Amino acid sequence: MERMKRTATCGALHAEHEGQSVVLNGWVHRKRDHGGVRFFNLRDRYGITQVVLEEPSEQLVDAFDRLRMEFCVAVTGTVRRRPAGMVNPEMPTGEVELVATELEILSPAVTLPFTVDERSDAREELRLKHRYLDLRSHRMQRNIRLRHDVSYRVREYLHSQDFLEIETPTMIKSTPEGARDFLVPSRLHHGCFYAMPQSPQLYKQILMIAGFDRYFQLAHCFRDEDARGDRQPEHTQIDLEMSFASKEDVFEVTEGMLAHVFSHVLGVSLETPFPRLSFHEAMERYGSDRPDLRFDLELVSMDDAVAGAGFRVFDETIESGGVIKGLRVPGGADASRKRISDLEETAKTYGAKGLAWTKVTDGGLEGGIGKFLAQRDSAVREQLAAEPGDLLLFVADAWRTACTALGAVRTRLGPELDLVDPDEFAFAWVTDFPLFSYNEEEQRWEAEHHMFSMPQERFLDTLETDPGSVLGDLYDLVGNGLELASGSIRIHDPELQSRIFRIVGFDWEEAERRFGFLLEALRYGAPPHGGIAPGLDRLVALMAGESTIRDVIAFPKTTQATSPMDGSPSPVAPAQLAELGLRVVSEEKEERERTGESRHIP
Ligand code: ASP
What we know:
The strands form five sheets. Strands 6-9-10-22-21-20-17-11 form an eight-stranded mixed β-sheet, sandwiched between helices. The chain has a five-stranded mixed beta barrel with strand order 1-2-3-5-4. The protein is α+β, with helices and mostly antiparallel strands. It contains 17 helices and 22 strands. It folds into four domains: about 90 residues, CATH 2.40.50.140; about 260 residues, 2-Layer Sandwich (BirA Bifunctional Protein, domain 2), CATH 3.30.930.10; about 120 residues, GAD-like domain (Gyrase A, domain 2); about 30 residues, no CATH class. Aspartic acid (ASP) binds next to strand 21 and strand 22.
């Protein structure tokens, strides 16, 4: 290798290098043999250079003939300006080519399962099985590079703000944060398990108690959830925590960090501070707790405008404590029945019983429920600032359902009506979330975010008597309609923490058993503290313009939580199980069925 070791990269050669003799190492990207005119493109991480054979030796031709796509090769040659007319302005190295004098195959490649860089039609399963090939593509190289740049700038910024990067363990005590734990059985303590952290939540809080004041970590978080949306069993958070800090301090650091990252990585300057909305306002105006603020289209409260119009559905909804939300679709009056029923399907998916509509003409409201609103025609139009040619949509339901369902229609309409600038980034803080939500299935209160978040002070007296109305010092960072981070000010008083445990259904003993170490630590002068954890994968996907986080993770799992490349998860050897004191029940059952043996398995 020493002799054929590269002296330049495939992205480095330009006109000023003319006449230089260089060695390039890389992969065969394209190969062309036009009746004796022999070319190939050589690719590495840095770019692509065209290599040409001219009056080649027999040995050179022989090596060239053996080349196939993705062979790893070394080429020695002389840089030459391309003849006028042959310059390729699309290629950064397009002014030059390398006239090969020597060609060595470092490593051949078998027939490819898909073409690198033209993988659009390759199934994702196949891409993941041969991830090393997929990662060679320009797009994936760019995405992984971008991820590196983001991580680097995050570290740079947080370091400049006195944050310390501290690692926390990957094997911890099971301390649920709302999802299911991945468990690691202990060989030394049969029957006992470590859990993999859903996040380093308690450790970062304990680091605050330990006096570290400002902590961060690019932390792997493990959540054993069913395939849903764009989730991964393992994802990365920019986890941070601050002592003696208010939520304003957390906002300022997060905004500063994102501004630093966007400016250095994308050359985009973000306007800070980001706008803020309470959860209630976000739901009222956008029907979502992660609104896409790149476009307006606000939901409007229609109760006063339609009350008493004589439309039974609306009147009954208002009488039973529900609300009527309206949405104006500018210029939407030409929508067909089919289009409207398509939008209605979206509203129904989010729980609405239906989607009422009417159109605005010069003569007033026409079609749909227009005739029922005749008496309140101008009030309705005024409330929605409607113009002739608009389509008006309504959902009548309980507040949360009405907002969410019409909000889902709004989210759809943004891109469909071309209201979204794909190059824009619109961040906002959503604050003042309810601390608890009621789990109807299990008939109990649970934490909306996690159990360690601080209730707002004014609710401290009514925590137990009216959990549903308690707002927390919780906040989310949203960007372009995505939830990018969640965080909160934490409880630092062990008594208050115990009260929260009781409300979510842990009696004293259970709380001690599970979280005793936290309660204990809180007794030793715990500082007030708070933090946040932006999702690194989601952030990078947003910056890369990718719609799935799998495209910004080097080795992601499939939506079924498998890894086609290494075949995980996979069974392990019986000896490994025995060492751990474990038996796989389903396998034993199969074995019993096969042998007809009946043995009780406890
Ligand atoms: N640990 C939390 C989470 O993973 C984030 C936080 O509250 O900082 O959602």
